[in-house]
Predict the 3D structure of the following.
Amino acid sequence: MQFLKDIVPAAQNNINTKFILLDKGRITMEGQNKTCLALVADETAAVHFQLWGDECDYFESGDIIHLIDGIFSYNRSSSLVLRAGRRGKIEKVGEFTMVFVETPNMSEIRWVPDPNNPKIYVQESIIAPHSRMFTPML
């Protein structure tokens, strides 16, 4: 099981982690598919998580989710998002009882290809210490 702070962008569908869903944005339509962005976190970091189709209705704030074979990718606004992807799977494994932090937010870091290995991304700069899409909880 991986921690969110240890996950870096790469073209691999092998992210296995567990997190709590903190907040969920509004549902939008992309073609025939529903989609919504969520803020999720574990005890090491937070990240934006993309929900698709029925996932948008099924998962709620406070749900603890296990992601199997997920992937980090960029959405249209050039933000890094975690998602299950076509081969990945997400399942609810609990509710409300999980330690988490909201910073750093991995989606608010600018990632660039490593000059020594362009298949790997490294942190270039921090855009914001917290999510600009989901205001920090008090």
